[in-house]
Design a protein that fits this description.
40% helix; two-stranded parallel sheet; single chain; binds uridine-5'-diphosphate-4-deoxy-4-fluoro-alpha-D-galactose; Rossmann fold; seven-stranded parallel beta sheet; alpha/beta
């Protein structure tokens, strides 16, 4: 069995990726400091797959903790690095927390790869690196734009750090996946997104409103240059997204890379407005959503969706799950956790 380490493996994207990895025969080693996740996730992963992943409560931004874990678990060949702070708004309030966690974390992971002979890295990047693209859909060659938040900046800096490191470290290959908007939950309703406090993102806000936890969804602006005036995003199903990581690992294992660091857009290739998404949610679930239009949210971009040709043709990966199914899974998960 191939051994793979997943940092942040108890988180939203991490946990779904661990499930897909185990189902494809990988032996998974999770490191997570549980700062934004729950230890029950590990048991729930085991309920889905029948296999309990090895788990270490490790803060990857603390080098010694990571190195101690790897000393105890030799033979790991690849790492998927999710562990990071990810709230855009909080990053503006607490920039140093973001720079410390996200930059130190990556540097420690790279040093560990060199020290312990780990060959392949998949890094979770974001379409945030493109800012508001001039041309849509956005390709991997679109210019990187100045970041709008410290969080976005850490993603850009991390891409550069990986670039510079692999250039002088021939034993290591890397793929950065630039995610669009990940949503949904596992169809089993055993794992999903667990926002702490009032959700900042659209889907958890929608499902909590539908569940009666929030009174009303605020739609941030309907005066954008889009068909109904609300912003456009490319919403990607969490299982589809998880599988993009397996495709990336396979590509490196099979030596199919063109260049030691590659970038892929991971989205559906289809943009939806906020109102279209609300309609799709109501249609998929049969639940009427209470919402109102309010003013724009500072820092929001108008529209972005992915050109996925490179991921489709090179990674051999394509988004498959229909949006209604994704939204139904998100709703089933919400009902499960609000019980
Ligand atoms: N929205 C609302 N009401 C809400 C929440 C969101 O109308 O209560 C709207 C936003 O204005 C935006 C859309 O829903 O038009 C999506 O917003 P999200 O907050 O769900 O997602 P973003 O596109 O703003 O942010 C996501 C990730 C970030 C990442 C960013 C850019 O959450 O981590 O994409 O890649 F930085």
């Amino acid at each position: 069995m191939k051994k793979i380490m997943v940092t942040g493996g108890a988180g939203f994207i991490g946990s779904h990726t661990v499930v897909e990895l185990q189902q494809k025969g990988y032996e998974v080693f999770i490191v997570d400091n549980l700062s934004n996740s729950n230890p029950d996730v590990i048991d729930n992963i085991a309920k889905i797959t029948g296999v309990k992943p090895v788990f270490g409560k490790v803060d990857v931004s603390e080098k010694k903790e990571l190195f101690d874990f790897l000393k105890q678990h030799p033979g790991i060949e690849s790492v998927i690095h999710f562990a990071a702070s990810k709230a855009v708004g909080e990053s503006v309030e607490k920039p140093l927390k973001y720079y410390r966690n996200n930059i130190n974390g990556l540097i420690n992971v790279l040093e560990a790869m060199k020290e312990f002979g780990i060959k392949n890295l998949v890094f979770s990047s974001s379409c945030t690196v493109y800012g508001q693209p001039k041309k849509l859909p956005v390709t991997e060659n679109s210019p990187i734009q100045p970041a709008l938040s410290p969080y976005g900046n850490t993603k850009q800096i991390n891409e550069e750090i990986i670039h510079d490191f692999v250039a002088v470290t021939p034993s290591i290959n890397a793929i950065a996946l630039r995610y669009f908007n990940p949503i949904g939950a596992h169809p089993s309703s055993l794992i999903g997104e667990l926002p702490i406090g009032v959700p900042a993102n659209l889907i958890p806000y929608i499902t909590q409103t539908a569940a009666g936890i929030r009174e009303c969804l605020s739609v941030f602006g309907n005066d954008y240059d889009t068909p109904d005036g609300t912003p456009i995003r490319d919403y990607i199903d969490i299982i589809d997204l998880a599988n993009a990581h397996i495709a990336a690992i396979n590509r490196m294992e099979e030596g199919k890379q063109k260049g030691r660091l590659e970038f892929f857009n991971i989205g559906t290739g289809r943009g939806l407005t906020v109102l279209e998404l609300i309609n799709a949610f109501e249609k998929a679930t049969g639940v009427k959503l209470n919402y109102k239009i309010v003013g724009r949210r500072a820092g929001d971009i108008e529209k972005v969706w992915a050109d996925t040709s490179l991921a489709n043709n090179e990674l051999g990966w394509k988004a498959k799950v229909p949006i209604e199914e994704t939204l139904l899974n998100a709703w089933k998960w919400q009902q499960h956790i609000s019980k």
